[in-house]
Amino acid sequence: MRERFGGLVVSCLTLGLLSTTHAQSSAVTVEGGGKEVATASHASGTFDINLKPLPDEEKIAGLKVGRMVFDKQFKGDLEGTSKGEMMTAAASVDGSGGYVAVERFDGTLRGRKGTFVLLHHGTMKRGGDFKVTIPVVPDSGTGQLMGLTGNLTINITNGQHFYEFDYALPEAP
């Protein structure tokens, strides 16, 4: 059973996330009430990930769930590490399922230091219908990343993990 969940996670990460789109890099000042509030920006780079299955716990009859923890090392516009926990659900049809994960990044975003939390939600349906969203959890930014909003996308090419991050941050004081 654990192998099936590992396969589901790999499928979600390698197939489902390949369908994410790449936004073009831009910087736009968002104004509110005549005052500069935040700058919309784009960051990109690579990351390495290490997945580890968690031990089986009490199971709910008929629910095929697996849990994993992961560690990531980010390079590029995001420099730092993250830790997270993932839960997968396998469907009764091979090739279909979903995952959710919560991940806490600790490091810098273009030189601004702090932490923030990402919330993953992904589904896949046999035949290649993949949907993945990875927004920043509102108000989770700390330090110089307070007020951070945005969405992260992941692309995997030849086994290498790439990220694209469209975000907005209040102007530095």
Report the order of strands and helices: HEEEEEEEEE
Q: What level of helicity do the residues show?
A: under 10%
Name given to the CATH homologous superfamily: SO1590-like
Q: How many runs of DSSP E, i.e. beta strands?
A: 9
Sheet having the most strands: 9 strands, antiparallel
Topology:
Blueprint (H helix, E strand, L loop, with lengths): L1 H13 L13 E5 L2 E19 L11 E12 L1 E13 L6 E13 L2 E14 L3 E5 L15 E9 L2 E11 L3
Antiparallel strand pairs: 1-2, 2-3, 2-9, 3-4, 4-5, 5-6, 6-7, 8-9
Structure characterization notes:
- This protein is mainly beta and 173 residues long.
- The protein has one domain: Beta Barrel (AOC barrel-like), CATH 2.40.350.
- It has 1 helix and 9 strands, in the order αβββββββββ.
- The protein has one helix at residues 2-14, and strands spanning 28-32, 35-53, 65-76, 78-90, 97-109, 112-125, 129-133, 149-157, 160-170.
- Strands 1, 2, 3, 4, 5, 6, 7, 8 and 9 form a 9-stranded antiparallel beta sheet that branches.
- The longest helix is centred in the N-terminal third of the chain and has 13 residues, at 2-14.
- It starts with a helix and ends with a strand.
Descriptive keywords:
173 residues; 1 helix; disordered N terminus; elongated; mainly beta; AOC barrel-like
